From TrEMBL:
The active site is at H101 (tele-amp-histidine intermediate). This is HIT-like protein. It comes from Sodalis glossinidius (strain morsitans). Coiled coil: none annotated. One of its GO terms (molecular function) is catalytic activity. SUPFAM superfamilies: HIT-like. A motif (Histidine triad motif) lies at residues 99-103. Transmembrane segments: none annotated. InterPro entries: Histidine_triad_CS, Histidine_triad_HIT, HIT-like, HIT-like_sf. Pfam families: HIT. PANTHER family: HISTIDINE TRIAD HIT PROTEIN. Residues 6-115 form the HIT domain.
Length: 115
């Protein structure tokens, strides 16, 4: 059993976050330390630690990450200009929170992917 983390507490609304969307599969909230004018995290409600741990059982939740990202991009008014979706995995990927999540970043030109 993977260890619970800060995102599990946000999903259960035990600690505050600016939650934009929640359903049975995913929760979306603003990143506490935004790297762009719009920086939203969309997380699976079930605890999947990393991209290495996904299984076929998770396909509905993983698909939902994309449909919710598109919905929020529209709400944020960044859909036309564009945005970036990122999933970090483990140390070399720069993952800090071991609870699978997609970053939605936009609202300014983001530059090249890798510095
Ligand atoms: P990672 O590096 O794991 O892909 O991204 C983790 C993200 O979670 C970081 O961008 C970080 O700013 C954000 N984060 C960490 N702790 C909290 C928190 O307590 N609340 C919110 N809203 N975001 C957090």
């Amino acid at each position: 059993m993977a260890e619970e983390n800060i995102f599990s507490k946000i999903i259960r609304r035990e600690i505050p976050a600016d939650i934009l969307y929640q359903d049975d599969l995913v929760t979306a909230f603003r990143d506490i330390s935004p790297k762009a004018p719009s920086h939203i995290l969309i997380v699976t409600n079930v605890l999947i630690p990393t991209a290495n741990d996904v299984t076929a059982d998770d396909e509905a939740a993983l698909g939902r990450l994309f449909t919710v990202a598109a919905k929020i991009a529209l709400q944020e008014g960044i859909d036309e200009e564009g945005y970036r979706l990122i999933v970090n995995c483990n140390r070399h990927g720069g993952q800090e929170v071991y609870h699978l999540h997609m970053h939605l970043l936009g609202g300014k030109p983001l530059g090249p992917l890798v510095a």
